[in-house]
Each structure stands twice: as C-alpha cells, then as structure tokens.
Specification:
alpha+beta; globular
Length: 169
C-alpha cells in the first residue's frame, strides 16, 4: 500500500471482531511508533500493550470516549523524565502524537482497525488510566489506541479543504 493510500484509508474504527492481534503485528506497530520523529531525539514515549480483559475493561471506563470493545489497546505515554527542559517540556506531546500516528498508519497497512481516544489533558482521565495501569508519576498517558480486526469498514476519504490553506508567495 502506498503512503497516500494509507493516509486516505486510515479511519477511526469503533467495532472489532474478537480475533486477537498477532504478536508479529504488535511488534510491527511498536517498531513503526518508535520510528517517528522526536525533538532532540529524546524519545520520551513509553507504550503499554494491553490484552488482559480486566485491564481493557478498566481502560474502557477510564476516559470519556474510550468505551470501545477491542482485543488490544496500546496506551501511549510521555515520560516526563525524558522530556526537554523548561519551556520545551511539552514537546513530549508532539513526539508521542507522531508515534501514535505511525501506529495508526501501520495498522492500516496491516489491515487492522484503530481508534485514537484522547486522555491528556483531561486530568480525570489521566488519573483513571494511570490507576488502571499502575503508572509511576513521571508517566503521563496521552491516549489509548484501541486496535483489532475491523468489524466495520468506513470508506476512505480525503478531507482536503482549500479554505484552510494559506499560500504566502
């Protein structure tokens, strides 16, 4: 699949089959995530791969839009002990977002469905996810990515809007 095709084909999927995601595919997703850009190469990301049904249920209840029944969740966290100093400290959000997008695109390539459910900056959701995963204080959950074999297939789409493009010549 060409990158452009994957970009258009990648859509949020909220219904999955019960089929497990293979260890090989999980490894590919994580390799894709960690191939993303990172400010000053700090790589402040950490990934929690969740297949345990009890923990998945806790994650479903943790955040406002995370009530998704999927066989796999990857929680993307920022490790604040690896973030840049002072006014640059929030670059972990960009780094972890780039890693997340790479997971979504690789999943599309593998024929898997995904949905990105935001956690940060909602403090209650952050606390719920942190508690569900027993995260240390230095790790901030950015999002929960629910992943599985899709039971729905949204049509590819191009959301290009010329009005949002500003050319400076």
């Amino acid at each position: 699949m060409e990158v452009y095709e994957a970009l258009l084909k990648r859509r949020s999927v909220r219904k999955f089959t019960e089929e497990a995601v293979s260890e090989e595919d999980i490894s590919k997703l994580l390799h894709a995530a960690m191939s993303g850009p990172s400010a000053c190469n700090r790589t402040p990301w950490e990934f929690f791969v969740v297949t345990n049904e009890d923990t998945l249920e806790k994650l479903r209840k943790a955040a406002r839009y995370s009530k998704i029944k999927a066989p796999l969740a990857i929680v993307v966290c920022g490790n604040l002990s690896k973030s840049l100093p002072m006014q640059l400290s929030s670059f972990w959000i960009q780094d972890c977002s780039a890693a997340t997008e790479n997971i979504l695109l690789e999943a599309t390539e593998l024929g898997l469905g995904t949905v990105w459910c935001g956690v940060h900056p909602m403090k209650r959701a952050e606390n719920n996810v942190s508690e569900a995963l027993s995260l240390p204080e230095k790790l901030i959950p950015l999002n929960i990515i629910h992943i599985g074999h899709p039971a729905e297939f949204p049509d590819p789409r191009d959301q290009f809007n010329e009005k949002k493009v500003h050319y400076l010549k």
